[in-house]
Structures are given as C-alpha cells and as structure tokens.
Amino acid sequence: MIYGRNTDRNLSEIVRLIRKLHVFPLFGRAAGLRQPVYVDDVAQAAVRAAFAPAARDQAYNISGAEVLSYREMVTRIFIAMGLRPKLLTVPIWLFNFGLACLQVVPRYRGWNADMVQRMNRDMVFGHEAAQRDFGFDPQPFQLRDIDVGR
C-alpha cells in the first residue's frame, strides 16, 4: 500500500472518512497485516533501480519498513490527525446481513464483502532483493501533516 502527501487513494480515503464520520468502522478483527510504503520511497526506488546494474531486467517488491495490523494503521492515522482514535468494530455477520439488505437498492448492488476480507487479509511483501540490488531502505510508517491534509 503506497501512501503519502495526501494524494494516494488508500490512506487519503481513510482520512476522508474519519473527517466525515469522526469514527472509523472496522470489520471483524481488522487484523490483516500491512506494510505501507511512503510515496517518496517508491520514487527513490524507481530512480535507484534505473541506475543499478543488478536491477536490469528485474522486477521487485517494495514495501515499507514496518509491519502493522490494519487496526493499528487506522489508529495511527487518527493520532496523526490530532484526534483520539474512535474505532467502531462491526461483526462480520452484521456487515454481511446489512450488505444483503442493501442489494435490493440499485445503487448498492455492486457492493461486495471484499472490503471485509481485505481488512483481515495479510498484505505484506519482503523487499530484501531491492535492498540488496539497489539499496532500497524504506522509512517506518510515520505520518506527516501533509499526509493527513493538516
């Protein structure tokens, strides 16, 4: 997951929802692991890889320096926004019931349970090859004011 500078489509959507609702809904345990990578680290990796002989004709995973749960990631977003974390844990069965009810409304027919599954699915990737071949050294998950639109 790439984040940063309030221009991404991941963390920025979480920030937008927190500003609107003042609470963030989490489905199930929201224990899926994440390894957010800062946008500047992605740009730096691209430049370094372009000039590294060992990176020629290679593909790399790049990820952040820190592994954290989806729940912990959202908690840190609240804190970076200067807010006390307010997390609303919604049981998966309740979400699925509500989703089934919404399917009768045309506007919501395209909704599915993938958002629940994503919050609870691990999405971490090692970046050891990038470290070895072109010195990729990502930063930990530290949000700045610009990242949360402050």
Please give a structural write-up:
Strands 1-4 form a two-stranded parallel ribbon. Strands 2-6 form a two-stranded parallel sheet. The protein has a two-stranded antiparallel sheet with strand order 3-5. With 150 residues, it is of the alpha/beta class. It is globular, with a radius of gyration of 18 Å. Helices cover 39% and strands 11% of the residues. 23% of the residues are buried. It is built from six helices and six strands, in the order βαβββαβαβααα. The chain has helices at 11-21, 39-51, 70-80, 92-102, 114-119, 128-134, and strands at residues 2-3, 24-27, 33-34, 37-38, 68-69, 87-90. It has one domain (2-142): 3-Layer(aba) Sandwich (Rossmann fold).
Primary descriptors:
two-stranded parallel sheet, 150 residues, NAD(P)-bd_dom_sf, 39% helix, Rossmann fold, alpha/beta, two-stranded parallel ribbon
Walk me through the topology:
Elements: E1 2-3, H1 11-21, E2 24-27, E3 33-34, E4 37-38, H2 39-51, E5 68-69, H3 70-80, E6 87-90, H4 92-102, H5 114-119, H6 128-134
Parallel strand pairs: 1-4, 2-6
Antiparallel strand pairs: 3-5
